[in-house]
C-alpha cells in the first residue's frame, strides 16, 4: 500500500494550487480589461465634439447638441448620433458651465434616490420607466403628451417643470412623488438625462427608435 | 424576546458569544427587510399607498439595504462562530470585537432612521455624506461607509490574528483569503463621479464581485464547515471539494462580471466575455449541490454499514436549510441567472421584473438559507443540545418561506416575461411603453400573486422566529428528561 501512487485528482495540494492559479489568472485578466475599458469610457472633451470625434461617453458640452438614436446597419443596433447645435434652456453652455450643471445633475440624481424607482442604463428599481434614453422619448418631444401637459415648448423646459411638480402632472395612477427638486436641480437633472442619452450603450434599449418612428408617423398605439 | 437566543453553554467561548450577538441583529433586520418588501409590493397594486409619506423608493431602499446588512451580520456572526472550532484558539481580542459590534449596530440604526425619516436631501455633497448615496444596494452615506470600513478592519484583524495563532485548516484559509477580497471590494463603491458609465462600472465591482464571487465562496466555506459539524463529513473530502469549488467559482464568477457590462457604455467585447464566463457560473453551483447531498448519503451509508441506526445528522433544521441552500443556490443563482445572462436575451430582459425574479430566488437560495442554517447551529451550541430535532414550527418556517419565495419568483418571472414582450420587443421601451406593459391584466395579476406570496413568506418568517426563540429551551428540557 505504501508504494501505491495516489491519483492527482484526489490530491488537495493539486486542487489548492489550481484554485490559486485560476483565481490569479482571472483576476489579472479582469484588471487588464478594466484598464482598457476605463480608457474607453472616460468622458470625451469639448474638442472631440467640435471635431466630430465619437466617444462612448461624450463631454458634458454634448448638451449643446441635438442628439438622435439611429439604427447602425454595420453594428446591427441603434447608436446615439450627435447632430447640429441646439440651444439648451435657450443658450449655449461653456465647458465649465456644462460640467458644473452635469455635476449638479448627477449629485441630485443620487440625492433624490432616482435609482430606487427608475432604472438608469437599465440598473435600479423597476417601479418607473427606464431613464437611459428618456431625453429622446417621443412623449417629451413637441407634440408629445408629456410635453403638452406641462404647457412648455421645449423638451428641457417640459422635463424641468415636471421634475419640480411631478404630482401636479399625473400621467398614470402610479405617480412620481414630489421630492423637493429646485429649479436649478431640475436643470441639472435634465442635463444629466440629456448627457446619458448620448452614451453609446451598444443598442440598449433595443427598439427604442421604433417608438420614435411610430410617433413621427402619427402616433403609437401605446398611448 | 430574542434574549432566549442567548449565550449560556459556551463556557467562555467569546467568538461564539459574539457570533450569537450578530445573529440576533441579523434576524431583526431580516424581519425589517420582509416588512419593507410587503410595503413595496402593495405599492405596485395600490399606487396611492403611503404616497409622498413613505414612497416606493424609500421602502425599496430599506428593503434591499436591510437584506445586504442582515446577510453581512449573519456572515460576520458565522465567522466568529466557527473560529474556535477551526483554529483551536479563542478569539484574540474579544473586547474589541464586542466594541466593534456595538459601534456597527449603532451606526446601522442611525442610517436606517435617516433613510426612513429624512429620505432625500438637496443635490449637494452633504447629502452624499450624511443622508444617502443613492446608489442601489450601497446607499449608506459616506460617514457610514468609513465607519463600516473601520469596523470591518477590526473584525478582519481579529479573525486573521486568531487564524495566525491557531491551526490553519483549508476551510479557514479559504475563509481568511475570501474575507480579505470581500472587504477590499467595498472600497470600489465609495467614490463619486459625474460619469454615470464609470459610476456603474465600479458599482458592479462591489455588487457582482460580492454576490457572484466572494459571497459564493463564503457559502461554500460555510457549507464545508457545517457538513463537518452536522453530519460528521470527513474533512479531507470536504476540503478537497472546497478547493474545487473555489477554482470553479472564481474561475467563472470573476470574469462573469462582464454580463453587467453589456449596456452601460462599456465596449462590445464584454458581450463575449460576459456570456462565456457567466454561462459557466452555474457549473460550480451544480457541484456544490451534488457535494452536499453526496456527502450526506455517504455518511449515512457508512453509518448503516457500521450497523448504526438512525440519522447521522445532529441538527435537523440546520441540515434542512443547508439542503435548501444546495437546491436554491443552483436554481436561483444558476438557472434563473442563466435564463437572461446571454446578451441576445439580456438586451430585452435587462431592467425588467426578470431581474427581480432572479434577485429574489438567488439571494434567498444562495444566502438566506445557509445563514438561517447557521442560526440553528448557534441555538444548538447555545443550549448544548446533542441532537436538535425539527419541530412543527421549524417545518412550517422552512416550508412557508421557501414556498413563498418560489411563488414570488414565479410571479415576477411571468411579470418580466410580459414586460419583455410588450414593453421591450413590441413597443420599444419608452415612457408610454413602460406603463402600457404595467397596466395589462397579466402584469397586474402577476404582481397580485407576488404580494400574496410575500405574505406567505412573512408568515413563514414568524414561524421561524417563534421556533428560534423556543426550540433551544424545549430541546434542552427534553434532553434533561
From TrEMBL, chain A:
It comes from the Bacteria. Pfam families: Cytochrom_C. Keywords: Heme, Iron, Membrane, Metal-binding, Transmembrane, Transmembrane helix. One of its GO terms (molecular function) is electron transfer activity. The keyword Repressor does not apply. InterPro entries: Cyt_c-like_dom, Cyt_c-like_dom_sf. Residues 100-197 form the Cytochrome c domain. The keyword Metal-binding applies. PROSITE patterns: CYTC (PS51007). The chain crosses the membrane at residues 18-35. This is Cytochrome C. The lineage of its organism: Bacteria, Pseudomonadati, Campylobacterota, Epsilonproteobacteria, Campylobacterales.
From TrEMBL, chain B:
GO terms for molecular function: cytochrome-c oxidase activity; heme binding. The chain crosses the membrane at residues 21-42, 62-83, 95-120, 140-159, 171-192, 204-228, 240-263, 269-294, 318-339, 359-384, 396-417, 448-466. The keyword Transmembrane helix applies. GO terms for biological process: aerobic respiration; electron transport coupled proton transport; respiratory electron transport chain. One of its GO terms (cellular component) is membrane. It comes from the Bacteria. Keywords: Electron transport, Membrane, Respiratory chain, Transmembrane, Transmembrane helix, Transport. Coiled coil: none annotated. Residues 16-417 form the Cytochrome oxidase subunit I profile domain. InterPro entries: Cyt_c_oxase-like_su1_dom, Cyt_c_oxase-like_su1_sf, Cyt_C_Oxase_1. This is Nitric-oxide reductase. It comes from Sulfurovum riftiae.
Amino acid at each position: 500500500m505504501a508504494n501505491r501512487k495516489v491519483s492527482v485528482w484526489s490530491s488537495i495540494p493539486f486542487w489548492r494550487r489550481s484554485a490559486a492559479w485560476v483565481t490569479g489568472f482571472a483576476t489579472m485578466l479582469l484588471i487588464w480589461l478594466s484598464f482598457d475599458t476605463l480608457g474607453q469610457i472616460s468622458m470625451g472633451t469639448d474638442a472631440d465634439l467640435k471635431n466630430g470625434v465619437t466617444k462612448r461617453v461624450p463631454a458634458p458640452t454634448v448638451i449643446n447638441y441635438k442628439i438622435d438614436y439611429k439604427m447602425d446597419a454595420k453594428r446591427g443596433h441603434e447608436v446615439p448620433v450627435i447632430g447640429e447645435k441646439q440651444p439648451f434652456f435657450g443658450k449655449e453652455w461653456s465647458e465649465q458651465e456644462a460640467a458644473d450643471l452635469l455635476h449638479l445633475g448627477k449629485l441630485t440624481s443620487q440625492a433624490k434616490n432616482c435609482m430606487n424607482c427608475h432604472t438608469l442604463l437599465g440598473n435600479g428599481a423597476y417601479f418607473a420607466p427606464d431613464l437611459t434614453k428618456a431625453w429622446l422619448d417621443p412623449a417629451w418631444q413637441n407634440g408629445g403628451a408629456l410635453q403638452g401637459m406641462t404647457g412648455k415648448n421645449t423638451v428641457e423646459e417640459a422635463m424641468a417643470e415636471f421634475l419640480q411638480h411631478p404630482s401636479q402632472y399625473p400621467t398614470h395612477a402610479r405617480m412620481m412623488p414630489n421630492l423637493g427638486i429646485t429649479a436649478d436641480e431640475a436643470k441639472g437633472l435634465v442635463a444629466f438625462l440629456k448627457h446619458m442619452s448620448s452614451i453609446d450603450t451598444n443598442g440598449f434599449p433595443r427598439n427604442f427608435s421604433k417608438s420614435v418612428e411610430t410617433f413621427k408617423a402619427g402616433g403609437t398605439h401605446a398611448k | 424576546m430574542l434574549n432566549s437566543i442567548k449565550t449560556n453553554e459556551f463556557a467562555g467561548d467569546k467568538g461564539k458569544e459574539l457570533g450569537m450577538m450578530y445573529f440576533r441583529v441579523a434576524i431583526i433586520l431580516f424581519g425589517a427587510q420582509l416588512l419593507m418588501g410587503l410595503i413595496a409590493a402593495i405599492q405596485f397594486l395600490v399606487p396611492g399607498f403611503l404616497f409622498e409619506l413613505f414612497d416606493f423608493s424609500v421602502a425599496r431602499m430599506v428593503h434591499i439595504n436591510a437584506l445586504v446588512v442582515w446577510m453581512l451580520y449573519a456572515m460576520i456572526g458565522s465567522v466568529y462562530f466557527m473560529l474556535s472550532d477551526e483554529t483551536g484558539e479563542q478569539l484574540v481580542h474579544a473586547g474589541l470585537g464586542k466594541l466593534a459590534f456595538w459601534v456597527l449596530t449603532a451606526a446601522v440604526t442611525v442610517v436606517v432612521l435617516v433613510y426612513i425619516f429624512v429620505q432625500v436631501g438637496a443635490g449637494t455633497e452633504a447629502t452624499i455624506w450624511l443622508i444617502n448615496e443613492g446608489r442601489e444596494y450601497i446607499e449608506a452615506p459616506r460617514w457610514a461607509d468609513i465607519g463600516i470600513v473601520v469596523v470591518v478592519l477590526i473584525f478582519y484583524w481579529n479573525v486573521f490574528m486568531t487564524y495566525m495563532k491557531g491551526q490553519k485548516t483549508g476551510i479557514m484559509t479559504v475563509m481568511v483569503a475570501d474575507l480579505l477580497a470581500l472587504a477590499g471590494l467595498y472600497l470600489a463603491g465609495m467614490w463619486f463621479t459625474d460619469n454615470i458609465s464609470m459610476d456603474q462600472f465600479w458599482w458592479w465591482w462591489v455588487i457582482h464581485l460580492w454576490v457572484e464571487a466572494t459571497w459564493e465562496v463564503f457559502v461554500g466555506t460555510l457549507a464545508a464547515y457545517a457538513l463537518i459539524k452536522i453530519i460528521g463529513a470527513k474533512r479531507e473530502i470536504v476540503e478537497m471539494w472546497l478547493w474545487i469549488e473555489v477554482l470553479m467559482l472564481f474561475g467563472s464568477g470573476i470574469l462573469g462580471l462582464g454580463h453587467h457590462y453589456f449596456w452601460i457604455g462599456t465596449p462590445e467585447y464584454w458581450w463575449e466575455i460576459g456570456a462565456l464566463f457567466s454561462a459557466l457560473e452555474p457549473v460550480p453551483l451544480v457541484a456544490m449541490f451534488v457535494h452536499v447531498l453526496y456527502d450526506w448519503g455517504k455518511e449515512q451509508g457508512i453509518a448503516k454499514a457500521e450497523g448504526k441506526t438512525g440519522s447521522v445528522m445532529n441538527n435537523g433544521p440546520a441540515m434542512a436549510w443547508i439542503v435548501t441552500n444546495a437546491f436554491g443556490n443552483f436554481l436561483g443563482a444558476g438557472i434563473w441567472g442563466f435564463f437572461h445572462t446571454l446578451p441576445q436575451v439580456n438586451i430585452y430582459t435587462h431592467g425588467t421584473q426578470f431581474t427581480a425574479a432572479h434577485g429574489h430566488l438567488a439571494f434567498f437560495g444562495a444566502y438566506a438559507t445557509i445563514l438561517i442554517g447557521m442560526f440553528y447551529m448557534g441555538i444548538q451550541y447555545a443550549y448544548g443540545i446533542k441532537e436538535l430535532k425539527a419541530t412543527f414550527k421549524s417545518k412550517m418556517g422552512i416550508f412557508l418561506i421557501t414556498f413563498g419565495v418560489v411563488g414570488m419568483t414565479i410571479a415576477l418571472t411571468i411579470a418580466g416575461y410580459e414586460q419583455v414582450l410588450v414593453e421591450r420587443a413590441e413597443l420599444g421601451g419608452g415612457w408610454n411603453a413602460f406603463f402600457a406593459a404595467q397596466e395589462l391584466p397579466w402584469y397586474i395579476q402577476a404582481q397580485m400573486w407576488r404580494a400574496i406570496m410575500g405574505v406567505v413568506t412573512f408568515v413563514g418568517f414568524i414561524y421561524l422566529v417563534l421556533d428560534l426563540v423556543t426550540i433551544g429551551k424545549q430541546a434542552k428540557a427534553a434532553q434533561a428528561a
